[in-house]
Amino acid sequence: MIGRGIGEAQSAAMEDGSRKARRRIGRKPFRRTGRRALTAILSASLLLGAALPAAAAANAPIAKAAKGRSGAGKADAAYAADPAVATARPAAAVAAPDAAPVLEAATFEEIAELIYGVMKDGYGERATVLYRGSTESLDQKLQQVFKAIGAKDDDLRFVLKKMTWNWTSTAYSATIDYRMSYWETSEQTEAVNEEARKAVQSPAIARKKEGREQTLAIYEWVMDRFRYDRTLEEHSAYAGLYGKNGTVCQGYALMLHRLLQAAGYESRIVYGKSKGDLHLWNMVRLDGVWQHLDATLDDPGAGKSKLAYFLRSDAAMAADHSWDRSAYPAAGR
């Protein structure tokens, strides 16, 4: 008989300065049934990273199942980046008609690589992985898979809205069913990318001197077209360009990231806090030096803009921003 259990930890999305969103954050008590099994439902909010899995794990030590286990996990939107980017050799794929693609893996690194591939291929929404190997501490290892996927690609990390996984296992094998949802469709992302390509080829940007001057033109392009979504409902670059309400910092950061990359600059999306509130902004590498940019806070609206957060060093940014410095390159100047 397969043992079963349920664990849950939940939190709501939270954005820059929103007290309403902050009040929504909460966790439900952990509960467990069954003697030898665990079902983990782990919710990490829009910007809360991997704090909740640790809490769930502390409350639910894994017991080896004599005949099998089952479980589930969930992570909403953004997650903490894993410094080690997962890599894996290609694994065999088995066709499953009218169902999610079935993929085979022998390591957790392979699982991360396979699910990343499904997500990159038109924002795939389903996949099943047949894993052959030790399943000790399986739920914690699947959480690390989730983090490894995010470490590979800032854009994909922040366009992802939610990932859930359900698993059944024995001591040396597991079947893991993944489900993903996104803030944009693949068609919407391509529309934004096409707009970014057109923008950086326009005279207003292309004729600027490479480096600071061109980066400023890109920065102002975003602020001229975007406005902050006070409803906190929209999180995509597509909504920032075409939606009626605008977008939150996540959309600003995604748009700036895509523009900078389209123009040939190295760019990162930074997850951290601004004045105590969870927030996203960017980094760009100019002349070999990384620097911070925060288009959301430099865009007060009403057709105005400022440059208080344009090309700032770590020291300057740290005055009212905080982030995990080990996850991002050091910024100078």
UniProtKB/TrEMBL annotation:
InterPro entries: CAP/Cytokinesis_protein, Papain-like_cys_pep_sf, Transglutaminase-like. It comes from the Bacteria. Coiled coil: none annotated. Keywords: Hydrolase, Protease. SMART domains: TGc (SM00460). Pfam families: Transglut_core. The lineage of its organism: Bacteria, Bacillati, Bacillota, Bacilli, Bacillales. Residues 20-29 have a biased composition (Basic residues). One of its GO terms (molecular function) is peptidase activity. Residues 241-297 form the Transglutaminase-like domain. One of its GO terms (cellular component) is cytoplasm. This is Putative protease. GO terms for biological process: proteolysis. Residues 1-29 are annotated as: Disordered.
